[in-house]
C-alpha cells in the first residue's frame, strides 16, 4: 500500500458547518516542525478518530487545538469562532474538554474530591451521574487518585471533564493499557454521550476500539494526514488501516 499524497484526501463538503474546523495547521516544538498542514473537521454529534504510529503527530494535534502548544500557525475554529489565539482556559470555556494521555487527575485527592473540585456547570455531569455511569467510582469514593487502577483513573478523568458540559471531547488513547471489560464500558459511555449530542475527537492506536466508535478516521503519518476513512469503508480497508498502525 502506498500512502496517498495529502492532496488525494478528499472530504466532501459538510452539509452543516463543522463544530471544529482545523485548516493548514503547522506546529513546532522549538526548531522542530512537527505538524505539516493538517486539515480536519468534526461535525456536530460526530465521533472522529486520529490514528497512526507513535510520533505521527496525533497528540500534538490535540495539544495545538486546546492551546496547550502555542507555537503553531493555521486556523482552528470552534462553532465558527477563531480559537487559535485564545489561552487554553478560554478554549475550554468555549466547550472543548481534553482528557490527556496521562489522565490529569489529582493523585492526592480522593475520587469524590476529584469529582467535586471543578463545580459542575449547568448541564454538566453531577457526581451522582458519574457514579451511575461508573459504579466502581462510588465504591472507590474515599480512595486517593493515586491508588486507582489505570481503568479507574481513565473513568475518573473522563467524568471530571464532563462536569463542564463540553460540546467536544478530546480523548487521547482512552483505551491504552486497560482491560477489555473496561475498554468496553468506556466505549459504551462514549456512544451514549454521542446520542446526547456530544462530539468526540479520539486519538487511538486500538483499531478495534476506534472502528467500533468512530464515524471517520484520519490517518497520520509524519505530521500529516495522508488518508481519511469513513465508517462505511473501515471494514473493507481494515488491512490498510492495520498497515498504517504497524511498526
Ligand atoms: N515536548 C516535546 N518536545 C519535542 N518534541 C516532541 C514533544 N512532544 C512530542 N514531540 C515530537 O513530536 C512528534 C509528534 O509527537 P506526538 O506525541 O504528537 O505523536 P503521537 O502520534 O501522538 O504519538 P504517541 O502515541 O507516541 O504520543 C514526535 O516526533 C515527537 O517525538
Explain how this protein is built:
- It is a single chain.
- The protein has 247 residues and is of the alpha/beta class.
- The protein is 33% helix and 26% strand.
- The strands form 2 sheets. A 6-stranded mixed β-sheet has the order 6-7-8-3-9-10, sandwiched between helices.
- It is globular.
- The chain binds adenosine-5'-triphosphate (ATP).
- Residues 29, 32, 34, 52, 54-60, 220 line the site of adenosine-5'-triphosphate (ATP).
- InterPro entries: AAA+_ATPase, ABC_transporter-like_ATP-bd, ABC_transporter-like_CS, BCAA_Transport_ATP-bd_LivF, P-loop_NTPase.
- GO terms for molecular function: ATP binding; ATP hydrolysis activity; branched-chain amino acid transmembrane transporter activity.
Write the layout of secondary structure elements.
Blueprint: E1 20-29, E2 32-42, E3 47-52, H1 58-66, E4 72-78, E5 81-82, H2 88-93, E6 96-99, H3 111-116, H4 127-133, H5 135-139, H6 150-162, E7 168-172, H7 180-195, E8 199-203, H8 207-213, E9 216-221, E10 224-230, H9 231-234, H10 238-245
Parallel strand pairs: 3-8, 3-9, 6-7, 7-8
Antiparallel strand pairs: 1-2, 1-4, 4-5, 9-10
The structure holds adenosine-5'-triphosphate (ATP).
Amino acid at each position: 500500500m502506498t500512502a496517498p499524497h495529502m492532496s488525494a484526501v478528499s472530504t466532501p463538503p459538510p452539509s452543516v458547518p463543522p463544530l471544529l474546523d482545523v485548516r493548514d495547521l503547522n506546529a513546532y516544538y522549538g526548531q522542530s516542525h512537527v505538524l505539516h498542514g493538517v486539515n480536519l473537521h468534526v461535525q456536530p454529534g460526530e465521533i472522529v478518530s486520529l490514528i497512526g504510529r507513535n510520533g505521527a503527530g496525533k497528540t500534538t494535534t490535540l495539544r495545538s487545538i486546546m492551546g496547550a502548544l502555542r507555537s503553531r500557525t493555521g486556523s482552528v475554529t470552534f462553532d465558527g469562532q477563531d480559537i487559535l489565539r485564545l489561552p487554553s482556559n478560554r478554549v475550554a470555556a468555549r466547550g472543548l474538554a481534553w482528557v490527556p494521555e496521562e489522565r490529569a487527575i489529582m493523585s492526592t485527592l480522593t475520587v469524590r474530591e476529584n469529582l467535586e473540585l471543578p463545580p459542575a456547570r449547568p448541564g454538566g455531569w453531577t457526581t451522582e451521574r458519574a457514579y451511575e455511569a461508573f459504579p466502581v467510582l462510588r465504591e472507590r469514593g474515599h480512595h486517593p487518585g493515586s491508588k486507582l487502577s489505570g481503568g479507574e483513573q481513565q473513568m475518573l478523568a473522563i467524568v471530571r471533564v464532563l462536569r463542564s458540559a463540553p460540546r467536544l471531547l478530546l480523548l487521547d488513547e482512552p483505551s491504552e493499557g486497560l482491560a477489555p471489560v473496561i475498554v468496553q464500558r468506556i466505549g459504551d459511555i462514549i456512544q451514549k454521550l454521542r446520542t446526547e449530542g456530544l462530539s468526540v475527537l479520539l486519538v487511538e492506536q486500538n483499531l478495534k476500539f476506534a472502528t467500533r466508535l468512530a464515524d471517520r478516521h484520519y490517518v497520520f503519518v509524519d505530521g500529516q494526514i495522508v488518508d481519511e476513512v469513513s465508517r462505511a469503508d473501515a471494514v473493507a480497508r481494515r488491512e490498510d488501516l492495520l498497515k498504517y498502525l504497524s511498526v
